[in-house]
Write a structure and sequence with these properties.
Distance between the termini: 11 Å
Strand content: over 45%
Largest sheet: 5 strands, mixed
Order of helices and strands: EEEEEEEEEEEEEEEEEEEEEEHEEEEEEE
Oligomer: single chain
Strand order of the largest sheet: 16-17-18-19-23
Amino acid sequence: MGTDSEQVILTTGGYDHTIRFWQAHSGICQRTVQHADSQVNALDITPDRQLLAAAGYQHVRMYDINSNNPSPVVNYEGGQGASRNFTAVGFQEEGRFMFTGGDDCYAKIWDLRSKNVQCQRIFQANHPVNTVCLHPNQGELFIGDQNGLIHVWDLRTDHNEQLVVDVDISIQHLHINSEGEYLAVVDNKGNCYVYSLHGENDTCSSQPRRELKLQAHKMYALKCKFSPDSHLLVTTSADSTAKIWRMTELLGMKDQNETQPEYKSSVPQTGKSWYTLEAMPLVELKEDGQRWVWDVAFSADSQYVLTAHSDSHARLWSISTGEVKREYSGHQKALTALAFRDGS
């Protein structure tokens, strides 16, 4: 992880209604801004590293990263009469639009090039939306809801398809690796599911195919993220751990087990059933007293991870040793979100 503070942005937020900006390599808090009237549910940084988006109750607020202005510079409202949380926020890679998800059952597209702060496009799911991820092809939005469904919304054609992940689950988070080859999903029972995504070229729609199901945690899972080099997958949970998995090992085990009895699911589907795996993580990241691990991010070199915890701390971990390298202390209540950028 780089140490040039001008090249590294680390922010955290949670239930104390504040957002803190940190010097990542030293653990020093450089700036605190108030996020009034709401906890922070999700954070993300614009591709040009100029603004921080904070998703909360009824609002997504944009803060200027490179000034000391304590107030939001843009405020996106949930809509007339809205009384719901924004649960997810992210950006198109060139900063053309922002996407959000919320427990009002909507995913929304907001044109950042327009002076109009109203959303331009809306997708309605039938259940609260917990997580939204933009495919690296920049044309498909993957939306996970509390009824175990993934909605694949093609922004180019407005066509959408549904994937039934499993029965009696809530999808808590999903993520697609940087090459657009794999989709990871975690649920409220601690399971992690991996799909392969097939498309003949960058302009083709994805064709998700079930690869494996892993009992990653014995309790509620919260986040899953691929490393920038796509070699690793991290999952976090209410069991107070973050676990790092090596993708080649998981897929290799699945290939070896294909001759074993398949997982029999009552889920209606057109493809095959899930292959269930029992595997040991490459490393388990856990400190005494750290409690729920709400959010996670990899460093650009895939050598470190940062975690946000309900014990009000964020931590920087070395993947190779499993040790805490830095702790970020200052929040007064649970941390539920972090955003991190280093390297190119």
